[in-house]
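Hey, can you fold this one?
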Amino acid sequence: MSTASLPYTAPSASTRTAVSAASFAERAAVFLVGLLLPAIAISPWGFAMGGLSRATMVDVMVLLTLVVLLASRRLRVDGYAILYAASLVFALVLGFGFGTSGTDVRWTAIQFIALSMALCYWVLGASIARSPALIKALMAGVVAGFLWEGVIVLHDMIMPAAWFPEADSRRTQGTFRNGGQLANYGFSAAGLVLCYGWPLWKKRSTRLMMIASALFPLLFVIAGSRRSAMAALLFWLMLYLAIGFRSTLKKAYPIILIATVGIAAWLISNWDTFSQTYFGSRAMDAYEQVESGESTFQLQFAAAMDTFWEWFPLGAGLGRGNYMTGGHAMVMQSWEIHNGHLNIAVESGLFGLVAFYALVIKALLHRWHNDFGKSTRAVRILTFTFLLAGMVFMIHNRLHRDRGFMLFMGLTSAIALAVSSDPRRSGTPLQHGQPVLILRRTPKAR
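Sure. Predicted structure:
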């Protein structure tokens, strides 16, 4: 069937102008979101609720971007997002119902706003996936964002007087509240660019530049000295080397493998020297605490499981993770459990746990029939392994609240379910470099 025989009416000049203006507004808004992600913790703007440090001007920018996408009919809210939102509302009601003081209600409200905003980032990622032009804008913004953040991090690592001094002078926090948040951002930014920063560009030089730039935010993980982030990245690298063998980046695979083995051999042979460094001493401290059975992680796990079964299957309610069963309240370092999986289980119960995992599993299990999937298997394997690494990171982190990771997860979920087609030739797959993604149910492979 020829293109000429298809019913197609050229838009009027006024329509073309309106579409062009809307498209520019969308790209500009999405670019700004990526650019401003490192500013999450330095702005005085946001919800004035005291303690809700992660809700800032970036959240306001995200909400405005969602409004722009809604006006242009690109906003995507699927059944999985609605299910998770329903679980948050249910846990909110439980938190208000079980709360016995003004402080209880305050923490419940704070947790609900934080998790709702993280879900908005997921929705933004899923909506951006509707247009490769928006994906490009996001990637450009993220790269620009971690470049300006990198200037600050490098300065504070090298120079004696830091622009943003950390409480522990041996760690670097950049523009974030602490080194842990800097590491979180580096982990998520690396995943965004490494998985999606290069497939839609035709030029080999541009694609290589995007892949190389994705390694830069990994410096933030080291600078922030986040042990769980380093463990997650190590798990991701090992998993990729195992699954990606003879499948992706065939020319680079031997280099990556040799470099990994070389670094491992150096660490083993120089372990005494490495253990004297700050990061090495932190790693040894963690090992000794786990070996003694008295680590914060182990105590929290026991307390959280007791509390989970006490409130099973409903959950204790949002913001009530600090009400631990069995006299374990003293093991809490903050007002919530420092384990994303257990935090969801305790506060949102079985319903919330299933709803959150649904956001992840659909991206892990679905076949990819789209521009990204057809261009190379590298995207699917990189994304699959990175998502699993994120779930490992959640064992000692709260990625379900982390804005950057939820943006990555929303983008991943939508792309995994996307179908590439020409809007004037329904069902005809696009070739790589002709990116138009129309999200609908993926047809079964023939």
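The two ends are 21 Å apart (CA to CA). Let me know if you want another pass with a different chain boundary.
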